[in-house]
Amino acid sequence: MRKPFIAGNWKMNNTREAAKALVNALVPLVADVETVEMAVAPTFTCLQDVAELLRGTRIELSAQNISYAAKGAYTGEISADMLKDVGCTHAIIGHSERRQFFGETDEGVARRVRAALDNDIVPIVCIGESLAERESGKTFDVVLGQLVNGLASVKREEAARVVVAYEPVWAIGTGKTATPDQAQEVHAAIRAKLNELFGAEVGEAMRIQYGGSVKASNAKELLGQKDIDGALVGGASLVAEDFAAIIKAAI
Ligand code: PGA
Fold first, then answer.
1. Whose CA is nearest to atom 2 of ligand 1?
2. 226: buried, middle or exposed (CB in 10 Å: 19+, 13-18, 0-12)?
3. Ligand 1 centroid distance, CA of 42 (Å)
4. What's the 108 CA to ligand 1 centre distance in angstroms?
5. Contact predicate 248/29, CB 8 Å
6. Do 250 and 37 contact (CB within 8 A), yes or no?
7. Is 190 in the pocket of ligand 1 (CB under 6 A)?
8. How far is the C-alpha of 223 from the C-alpha of 216, rounded, in Å?
9. Nearest C-alpha to atom 1 of ligand 1 is from which residue?
């Protein structure tokens, strides 16, 4: 059985006070949740404050990015070591906004995944097609290509630690969610590829999150699909009640 995993990607929102208020509101709402893995991904500047508030709770801490390099002359980057130092256990890697606005490539994703795994940080590896790619029938080529390239350095024995997030770019922040059938179709293809890459035992144990306009109102139906094992939530994770409702939809 795969444990559902709901993560909140706060993106570039919240200064420290707002971040603390959001976590303080969230913690009691999900205090009794045991069967769903939960994480929040604040900006780098809020990680330390949020880490302190999450201590003793079941909510885990994720970064929104991670450097592929260990240390040194990489201005503006944050290493896996530094993330661990502030209490991060997870890192989002290759989010479509990083790919679209900051030039991240599959090769960079693969290097970041390596850095995360080498430092005991769980990589949440994002993949997804654009609207133009979907409309020209390239969804599976694009998504599976990003998957294979992004996980290129992952060994079979460590693959079960990796989380994949399927986020169709056309559904992110647009209010347009993939239908449960549309999402499941791609999740099933991702599952088949994971089975092929790592063997069925490992592939069946790996979690595949869906992301893109997940809300309390559509979460249950999406999470009810066979190969949807959780959600990566953007906008709705900025409101404690909404995020808690999505978490509860996964129970
Ligand atoms: P959204 O973002 O829920 O606001 O669509 C999802 C994501 O980008 O992770």
1. 234
2. exposed
3. 14
4. 21
5. no
6. no
7. no
8. 11
9. 234
Residues noted as catalytic? 95, 167
What is the Å distance from ligand 1's center to 32 Cα? 25
pLDDT band of residue 112 (cuts 50, 70, 90) is: very high
Answering whether pTM is above 0.90, one says yes
**234 CB near ligand 1 (under 6 Å):** yes
With vertex at residue 103, the alpha carbon angle to CA 147 and CA 215, rounded to the nearest 5 degrees, is 60
Residue 211 CA, closest ligand 1 atom number: 6
- The answer to whether the CB of 172 is under 6 A from ligand 1 is yes
pLDDT in tens, 35-89: 999 999 999 999 999 999 999 999 999 999 999 999 999 999 999 999 999 999 9
* Mean of all residue pLDDT scores within the chain: 98
SS (H, E, C) 153-216: CCCHHHHHHCEEEECCHHHCCCCCCCCHHHHHHHHHHHHHHHHHHHCHHHHHHCEEEEECCCCH
Map tokens 């979690």 to a residue: 207
CA of 123 to the centre of ligand 1 (A): 17
CA distances from 126 to 50, 147, 156, 182 (A): 23, 8, 19, 17
- The H-or-E segment that residue 110 falls in is helix 106-118
DSSP conformational letter for 4: P
